[in-house]
Amino acid sequence: MEQQRFRCAACNKLDRERVAGQRYCGAVKCQRKRKNKWRRERYARDATYRDTAQASTADSCTAWARR
Q1: Domain chopping of the chain, boundaries
Q2: Which DSSP symbol is given to 7?
Q3: Rounded CA separation 40/18 (Å)
């Protein structure tokens, strides 16, 4: 079975697809962009995720201030 080729959505590099529908290459900066995009979308549409993330950030800031 021959692998399809795709163009990375972040760096525009042509790469071989390892998973059907793959849109990002394996480079660290491209994976970081992919994950940040996912987080922004999730944060915008999921109130529970947003509340949990805000509480977690507040807790870690409070702990840092105490130290």
Answers
A1: 26-57
A2: E
A3: 25
